[in-house]
From TrEMBL:
Residues under site feature: Transition state stabilizer: R17
Enzyme Commission number(s) of this protein: 4.2.1.10
Name of this chain's protein: 3-dehydroquinate dehydratase
InterPro entries per UniProt: DHquinase_II, DHquinase_II_CS, DHquinase_II_sf
A molecular-function term among this protein's GO annotations: 3-dehydroquinate dehydratase activity
Pfam families: DHquinase_II (PF01220)
Pathway(s) this gene product operates in, as recorded in its UniProt entry: Metabolic intermediate biosynthesis; chorismate biosynthesis; chorismate from D-erythrose 4-phosphate and phosphoenolpyruvate: step 3/7
Record-level GO BP terms: amino acid biosynthetic process; aromatic amino acid family biosynthetic process; chorismate biosynthetic process; quinate catabolic process
Lineage start: Bacteria, Bacillati, Actinomycetota, Actinomycetes, Bifidobacteriales
Taxonomic source organism: Bifidobacterium bombi DSM 19703
Database matches in HAMAP family: AroQ
Residues binding substrate: N73, H79, D86, I103, S104, R113
Subunit structure: Homododecamer.
The protein's role, per its UniProt record: Catalyzes a trans-dehydration via an enolate intermediate.
Length: 148
């Protein structure tokens, strides 16, 4: 099964951006980790990153059309993008797993990070576990697909 792992704005700057919060490893490392974790679960993982809201919304539409489960770190879009929330809702409405992941624990940070517009339409959310959260999210997708 194919799984899209989608990363929102500024996550292409992992390793450089606030390493105390997001760690010192880069997106390339995260991508390779996700592919390896997926392989062990029998999942064909495709990692993407964009700073462009329209592009990320388009990937949600593709996920619906291609019936592809999603692991998504919506990054700052988490907190304000109703457009992305509506698109993410289409994915879960289509019966596809959509796991929301955050590297940090946004609840423990600035107040604007405490609210997610994505969580209400996600299948589940994993926060505060660093890159390991993506592994948990992929395991969750594998679990959810087995339930069907
Ligand atoms: C983030 C948390 C968001 O608040 C922030 O805007 C990000 C990354 C995380 O992975 O912890 O860009 O989604």
């Amino acid at each position: 099964t194919r799984v899209m792992v989608i990363n929102g704005p500024n996550l292409g700057r992992l390793g450089v951006r606030e390493p105390d919060v997001y760690g010192s490893q880069d997106l390339k490392t995260l991508s390779a980790d996700c592919v390896t974790w997926g392989q062990r679960l029998g999942l064909d993982v495709e990692v993407r990153q964009s700073d462009d809201e329209a592009e990320v919304i388009g990937w949600m539409h593709d996920a619906v059309d291609e019936r592809t489960p999603v692991v998504m770190n919506p990054a700052a879009f988490t907190h304000y993008s109703y457009g992305l929330a509506d698109a993410a809702h289409m994915v879960t409405d289509a019966g596809l797993p959509l796991m929301e992941v955050h590297i940090s624990n946004p609840s423990a940070r600035e107040s604007f990070r405490k609210h997610s517009v994505i969580s209400p339409v996600a299948t589940g959310t994993i926060t505060g576990m660093g890159f390991f959260g993506y592994k948990l999210a992929l395991e969750s997708v594998a679990y959810l697909l087995r339930q069907k």
